[in-house]
Write a structure and sequence with these properties.
heterodimer, A: alpha+beta, OB fold (Dihydrolipoamide Acetyltransferase, E2P), 6-stranded mixed β-sheet, 5-stranded antiparallel β-sheet, 9 helices, elongated, B: mainly alpha, MetI-like fold, two-stranded antiparallel ribbon, 11 helices, globular
Chain lengths: 386, 265
């Protein structure tokens, strides 16, 4: 069973609540997966999945295609029936409850606005489905549209809106009936990069305005997850590989897959772990002794991986600093605001990112890089996913 | 277009247009011309008249037009309701029973209409299901013949509906009937209209089964045309055929405009 434990709690938002916006969401409820499995015939797509999203939190589920993240979300929505386990929204067991009785809001990748209804009719849909009074609808629809900056577009049809605008309407529509939880299934995937960045800011602002809203956010984009989520679950092959606070998981990934998927870390194979001061440890990488944080308390003498993020390397031309690695440059790419340098060191291909350099190294040049041991962590070697 | 050279395109048009006129234009042209002919002893009519049209809107012929329109609308409407219901129900079924029932619904389209007519005649000629000689047996015959096409059209439409829209509707609290009424059917509207149009056109032209089962007093236009031509009243038959074509075309154009409006949304 993949038991998820909260590694770090992010502080609750301290920003002031916007009164009109806060009214658009009910007090958030907990989402609980208890040992949930989903099978299609002989194929198990979700294995004993256990996870809790606390009220008011955003938890992002990330993972490659087919990892089971969307299945988990759809199980909460009621579109996938678990073969075992329980799903809770608040204190209610909703495992076998119809989707329309779950009090959720859902936003999907392709917006799924009703093309035959105007924007305001789309937003009013959930309210009408719940039998809300007309005066409530007349008040709530403009309120929700204003919350997503679409107040002026109520009388348009979805086809008359851009992708970003349609997604805003989809969010307003999901929030209008004041759901207990909001499910976002890759909501920004269909947008181009620039609009995605702006929508990401708007989603972050929306959650600041609605701090009680509980959100389960499925994405394959680590930037979205790191920007929005209090906690992140990393999935692979229908299992939760790692779960923790966004910062903690990024700084101290618990395994190779988490390190590689979240931030594309360099994982240098090291041996002979020796405890150092505090939570530091010394390991041997090739002929070099490196120091790093032993956050996961790996045992003395064990083999492990030194997890170094590309931006944690400091570039020098000679190995004079402690924690230095020497290597030969394989490629240099200038991407405007950064230089990406790839070099071979100890038989490993290592990536580093730096601010733009006036004189970047040439391909084939011998270089050295070093890192701050407090910014680098040791990760247990995971043979199964190696 | 697959032909890129100008000379090639001209040659293609030079073959296609006469072929089209010969195959489609000539029979229709001859029928329309015959419908206004008073006498036709040469390559073209020697005398033109509208007398056949004034006759057509009197008594038996007009009743036949009404009979065809009523039969077409009622049978197509019933086929639309049942075909849509069947398509919606089968969508939720598991693959094997769905395929079996799918095949079952398509059987009438594979059976000759005369066989359907004969089958109905035999089946409904004994009490307690004595429908022989009633209007109902004509409606049933048309319903059986067109329902497969209606079902096929609606099934094709349903397979193209974005499933996300329906699921999001449910997540917003829409119960099944509310979702069906407010989301599924409006999204399906262009396909429903297309299904109705096809069924109506088929019903308006149906002869094989109708001629086996029609009662006195409920003659459809194709049966009337058949009996007129059988009696040698070719000009009257041509007039009725022209009216049949025009009436069907008018209804289809009207439905097509509604369908286009629904599609745009």
């Amino acid at each position: 069973m993949a038991e998820a434990t909260v590694m770090e709690r992010m502080p609750a938002s301290s920003k002031p609540v916007v009164a009109s916006a806060s009214a658009a969401a009910a007090s958030g409820s907990r989402i609980g997966f208890e040992d949930v499995s989903v099978t299609y015939g002989s194929l198990t797509v979700l294995h004993s999945f256990t996870l809790t999203v606390n009220p008011g939190e955003i938890v992002a589920l990330i993972g490659p295609s087919g990892s089971g993240k969307t299945t988990a979300l759809r199980a909460v929505a009621g579109f996938v029936k678990p073969s075992s386990g329980r799903i809770l929204i608040g204190d209610r067991d909703v495992t076998y409850l119809a989707p329309y009785d779950r009090k959720i809001g859902m936003v999907v990748q392709n917006y799924a606005l009703f093309p035959h209804m105007r924007v305001d009719e789309n937003v009013a849909f959930g309210l009408r489905a719940h039998g809300a009074a007309e005066d409530v609808i007349r008040k709530r629809v403009p309120e929700c549209l204003a919350m997503v900056g679409m107040a002026a577009y109520g009388k348009r049809y979805p086809r008359e809106l851009s992708g970003g605008q349609q997604q805003r309407v989809a969010i307003a529509r999901a929030l209008a009936p004041r759901p207990q939880v909001l499910l976002l299934d890759e909501p920004l995937s269909a947008l181009d990069a620039q609009i995605r960045r702006s929508m990401l800011d708007e989603l972050a602002k929306l959650h600041r305005d609605l701090p009680n809203l509980t959100v389960l956010y499925v994405t394959h984009d680590q930037t979205e997850a790191l920007t929005l989520a209090n906690h992140i679950g990393i999935m692979r092959d229908g299992r939760l590989q790692a779960f923790g606070g966004a910062q903690s998981l990024f700084r101290h990934p618990p395994n190779r897959f988490a390190a590689e998927f979240l931030g594309r870390a360099n994982l240098l194979p090291a041996s002979d772990l020796q405890p150092g001061e505090g939570d530091r440890a010394h390991v041997r990488f090739g002929g070099t002794v490196l120091s790093a944080r032993n956050h996961h308390r790996l045992p003395k003498g064990s083999d492990c991986l030194v997890c170094v993020r590309p931006h944690d390397f400091r570039f020098t031309r000679t190995a004079t600093e402690p924690n230095s690695i020497g290597g030969t440059v394989v490629s240099v790419q200038w991407q405007g605001d950064v230089h990406n340098i790839t070099f071979e060191a100890g038989g490993q291909t290592v990536r580093m990112t730096s601010t733009p350099m006036a004189s970047p190294p040439a391909i084939g040049e011998a270089i050295a890089v070093h890192f701050d041991p407090d910014e680098v962590t040791l990760v247990p070697e995971d043979a199964r996913h190696g | 277009m697959l032909v890129w050279s100008k000379s090639g395109r001209i040659a293609t048009w030079a073959v296609a247009v006469p072929l089209f006129l010969l195959i489609y234009g000539l029979p229709i042209g001859v029928i329309v011309l015959a419908s206004v002919s008073g006498q036709w002893n040469d390559i073209l009519p020697t005398k033109l008249t509208l007398a056949h049209y004034s006759d057509a809107f009197r008594a038996d012929s007009f009743d036949a037009l009404k009979g065809s329109l009523v039969t077409g609308v009622v049978a197509s409407g019933a086929a639309l309701v049942c075909g849509t219901w069947a398509a919606l129900a089968l969508r939720k079924m598991k693959p094997v029973p769905r395929r079996i029932l799918d095949l079952f619904f398509f059987i009438p389209s594979a059976v000759p209409s005369v066989s359907i007519g004969l089958g109905l005649l035999v089946a409904f000629s004994q009490p307690p299901l004595l429908l022989n000689g009633t209007k109902m047996i004509v409606l049933i015959a048309h319903f059986v013949l067109i329902s497969a096409f209606t079902y096929g059209n609606v099934t094709a439409g349903l397979s193209r509906l974005p499933i996300d829209c329906e699921q999001v509707a449910e997540s917003l609290g829409a119960r099944p009937f509310y979702r069906l009424r407010r989301v599924t059917l409006p999204l399906l509207a262009p396909y429903l209209i297309a299904a109705f149009s096809l069924s109506f056109a088929l019903s308006m032209g149906e002869l094989g089964a109708t001629v086996m089962v029609y009662p006195p007093g409920w003659v459809t236009l194709p049966v009337r045309i058949f009996s007129l031509s059988d009696r040698g009243a070719i000009f009257d038959a041509a007039t009725m055929a022209t009216i049949l074509g025009a009436a069907t075309l008018l209804v289809l154009i009207g439905l097509s405009r509604i369908s286009t409006k629904a599609m745009v949304r």
